[in-house]
Amino acid sequence: MSPTALSPARTVLPNGVVLLTQRTTTQPAVAIDLVLRTGSVHDPVEHLGVANFAAHVIDQGTTSRSAEQLAEAFDDRGIALEAYASRHRFGMTCTCLASDAESVLALVADIVRRPSFPDDRVATRRVEIETGIRRDADSPAETADALVRALIYGETHPYGRRTSGTLESLARIDRQAIADFHRTHCAPERATLTIVGDIDPGAALDVASRGFGDWTSPPPPPEAALTPAASNGRRRAVRSLPGKVQADVAYGFAGITRSDARYHAFWIMNNVLGQYGLGGRLGDSIRERQGMAYYVFSELEANVGPGPLIIRAGVSPDNVERAIASIDEEVGMMGRDGVSDKELADAKQYLIGSIPRMLETNARIAAFLQTVEQFDLGLDYDARLAGLLEAVSLEEVREAAASLLAPDRAAVAVAGPIDSASGEEART
Question: What is the pLDDT of residues 17-57, one digit of tens each?
Fold first, then answer.
């Protein structure tokens, strides 16, 4: 499917559920993607990680179906249902045969509307989540990521804390806390359902209306305002993880919102910096020419609030300071000088050329439409995207780089087999 072929239909059910449908006929399958505009940003302070916990247990039984019955219903159809929680999303996704779409949508509706959160499944999932938290705490990459986010935003900011919470907060989350989160925040007016595949949009609307049309709940609380990032000064944190083979560096800044008019300029800037590692400045300098990193890349997480731009690198413990100095050099150079004409042209060509890959499966189209709806990008965004990228000027990319990339404002985190005392700097 070409990126200009999308023609989604958008319908808002009387209870506020947004339905986006796109018919494709390349295969007899349907992708179903249900997203509620909630997530770890709504975790109560005493129950950090509750959204993630709810996502782990929401498909483990409803008021009318046991966990075993749900598992059998999906397994019999060869379907893997994924439930997840991120900072601003609580969702479920799956792909099924077109002939199973109606029954699968009924199952998804039952799960999101009437979960029972059985005590035995809560206990099982608690162990799994605890294991994950412990595993992340022992991972240099995950530890560096957690440290840099806390440096950028502060440990109490929704963007500065882990979506999984902590071992301490996990211990305080019981079945009632999970049920309270679901009842308070999982409301029809926060729901967007995308259905993409070999199904007539009218039939999809009928099926969705039967499953979700009579869903009611108390109005959810208003969206909480996100406070600014913690600081713009240089900050550094180091955590020693003895016995590891490599050290991981996370180096970042508070970036922009996805709705920022400068987004496409920032996207191009980040692509030149090192969005995919090899081919970007970071990968060319630090990995290829200097041979210092096992991997290095940059990631721009524009979100509802100003999400971070984070540079990540895995290096030998002996090369940590050299790698950070090289990142400083590349970041400082781009912040001062911007990008070249050739880099701009190459980045545009690459990103525009990647648009078809963004839409090559029903599941990817469904996810794309969720982003379109969440950030009000317009149902023709796929058709306009190439033009929006092509229209970005060299000066706009330079201004984006200058507004963000300054080593003296960077948050720098290191985790691995190194002496934490030797690298610790005061936070400012």
Answer: 999 999 999 999 999 999 999 999 999 999 999 999 999 99
Q: What percent of the chain has pLDDT over 90?
A: 90
* Polymer length in residues for the chain: 428
The pLDDT confidence band at residue 224, using thresholds 50, 70 and 90, is: confident
Alpha helices in 218-340 (DSSP H): 263-274, 281-282, 320-337
Tell me the per-residue pLDDT of 255-268, one tens digit each, with 9 for 90 and over: 999 999 999 999 99
Tokens of 47: 């129950």
Every domain of the chain and the residues it spans: 9-212, 235-423
Same fold, 9-212 and 235-423: yes
User: How distant, in Å, are the alpha carbons of 31, 35, 254 from that of 259?
Assistant: 26, 19, 15
How far is residue 138 from each of residues 135, 164, 249, 359, measured CA to CA in Å? Answer: 5, 15, 15, 36
Q: Which fold has domain 235-423?
A: Cytochrome Bc1 Complex; Chain A, domain 1 (3.30.830)
Task: Give the mean model confidence (pLDDT) for residues 361-374.
Answer: 98
Contacts of 274 (CB under 8 A, 6+ apart): 280, 281, 282, 283, 296, 297, 298, 311
Which CATH number is correct for 9-212, 3.40.50.360, 3.30.830.10, 3.30.950.10, 3.30.1780.10?
3.30.830.10
pLDDT at 422 over 70: no
* pLDDT band at 289; cut points 50, 70, 90: confident
Helix (H/G/I), strand (E/B), else coil: 92: strand
Helix (H, G, I), strand (E, B) or coil at 33: strand
Closest CA to 199 of 367, 361, 28: 28
